[in-house]
Amino acid sequence: MKISPLSYARNYNNKYMVSDKKKASSLSTQLNFGGEAEIKAPPYKGYMVCVGTKHEKGAVIKKGLVYNRDTTSFLRSDLDWQKLAKYLDKKYKETEKVNVYNYGCSNGAETYTLALILSNLTDKDSDKYFPIIAKDIRKSQIADNIFNKVMDDIVFYDNSSKKSDIMTQLLADNENRDYFYFINDIYNTQEIHIKPKLAKKVEFTYGNILNDVDKIDSKAPSIIFCRNMWQYIDEKEYSEFFEKLYEKLAPNSIIIIGYYDIENDAHQRHKNAIDDYILEAGFVPSISDAANKSLCPDINCLVFEKN
Question: Which of 38, 164, 229, 252 has the greatest number of beta carbons closer than 10 A?
Answer without folding.
Answer: 229
